[in-house]
Automatic annotation (TrEMBL):
The chain crosses the membrane at residues 20-43. Its EC number is 2.4.2.10, 4.1.1.23. The keyword Transmembrane applies. GO terms for biological process: 'de novo' pyrimidine nucleobase biosynthetic process; 'de novo' UMP biosynthetic process. This is Orotidine 5'-phosphate decarboxylase. It catalyses: orotidine 5'-phosphate + H(+) = UMP + CO2. Keywords: Decarboxylase, Glycosyltransferase, Lyase, Membrane, Pyrimidine biosynthesis, Transferase, Transmembrane, Transmembrane helix. Catalyzes the transfer of a ribosyl phosphate group from 5-phosphoribose 1-diphosphate to orotate, leading to the formation of orotidine monophosphate (OMP). Pathway: Pyrimidine metabolism; UMP biosynthesis via de novo pathway; UMP from orotate: step 1/2; Pyrimidine metabolism; UMP biosynthesis via de novo pathway; UMP from orotate: step 2/2. It comes from the Eukaryota. Residues 78-334 form the Orotidine 5'-phosphate decarboxylase domain.
Amino acid sequence: VLRLSIKSNKGTANCMRIQVLHYIGLVVSVVASTFCCALSETFESQKDCSSSTQESLSETMSGFFGKLDARVESANSLLCIGLDPHMKEVFPEGWEDKSEEEKCDAAYTFCKTLIDATAPYAACYKPNAAFFEALGSNLGVATLERVIKSIPKFIPVLLDVKRGDIGSTASAYAEACYDIGADAVTLSPLMGWDSVSPFVTGKYSSKGAFVLCKTSNPGSNDILALELKSGETVYERIANLAGTWSSLADGTEETCTTPRLGLVVGATDPEALKRARQAAGPNVWILAPGVGAQGGDLLDAARAGLNAAGTGMLIPVSRGISKAPNPGEAALELKEKINQARNQVVSAEQAAVGEATEGIEPYQREFLEFSLAEGVLKFGSFVLKSGRTSPYFFNAGLFASGGALFKLGKAYAAAIMASSKLTNGKEVNFDVIFGPAYKGISLGAVVCAALYSDFGVDVGFAYDRKEAKDHGEGGKLVGASMENKRVLVIDDVITAGTAIRESHKMLSSIGANTVGVIIALDRAEKRSLDDPVSAVQAVARDLEIPVVSIASLPQLQAFLQKSPDYDDAILASVTEYRSQYGV
């Protein structure tokens, strides 16, 4: 808005001002006109008013899976819409007499109509290459390219091709897929990394692939469900390999900065979906076909396949949308149903964390805080002896100063006195604390001192040597006599339980009565996928004694939830780990 005030007594100056402002007005008019034309062109080329912004954002995302993450978040959708131009849908009255050009034009119109109706609700589009190749050798692939180019650029395109070959053939397949605009492909991985790498490395390192893992058809059990010598199924091995292969860059052992691979796991088999998720970890995307016509239950699939954040899984639907009287309304309804299932899964996870929060005690919080301060407890990515990748690691051997041992002893003592399994009112139900060599020696000493200092409880302390002493009084046992005494065994953690079982056997041989075990941290995770009990639970069951810990995995979750010093990603990784391996 230009304001012009003309005062009569200014004469010529006012005329000059009017002329200058007239030229300014012309310039503004031209700029505005140009802007409006550009704006009009933008709206013409992209119907969605926010598409240009989303396009620029999608270009900054790190590869296909970064683009997918961004789209899932912006659309609040996990719905993958299939573009499958079945001729009997495109031409219900028959297509045998149609020319290749007529079939291709009709297939394009069929897909474009679906895209226009469903774009606001799509996390991803999945055109099936076979239906386009069947249209004819001249125009079929060109029609597929037209369809892909009609999809808004900010919505990822997963081309369903299920290729599986090696060498130059695989490279040619990759070039054919990506030259027409696909962001990712589906692949058969049974020929190994050689058949996958051409699609996700080198000049295609920004692309992605979903490898067939446990497909939704009944016949998939013939091969993919076979059990290997390792005890895992073929599909579990594939799920494990997806993580390994994603870390490869151009065939080397260098680590990629972005994920490369996802899995195709049918929603028709929730148990397989759950086991594939456990094998692959929380960060691998899963394409889960089979909901609806094939009999897959949406909520069961969500419980089995989603990660703790309520994402990480795409639900593909084709004919359930294309055959609907109003495809847009059908897509919206499916999106909302998927989100309802997501919300139920996330709410259940949050409730589990909430239950843990209610159970954390002040001494447990203090223990976790100083364990982190001493570097004994760390967050990150740690490969355990079991082969699992844990988001945290605990090494009590790093309590290596007088102050740290003093605090550690107080934490053990507090846990003992808080346990109804080790006390009777204000009295403990043991006479001696036994510390197996070597870690148990220092632990037993500081805990006995803390019990006396903080609670006035005076108990004996004993430990063993790895080898019998051949001079002096000799023998392997040192300290208080344990014969006919009630003994509490102390250790830092229980991994397999071997040391505790050996101690129990030795104590029984000298007439001692083992009444319990006290440890610092209980990882509270099952020993294997086939064994639903933890190492701690197995010791308690086999030896028929209680095992008490200062803190366990649920308290660690609660600590992270309440602590402002750690971001949500750490809590999510610990929660996901517990959901996979926890007891």
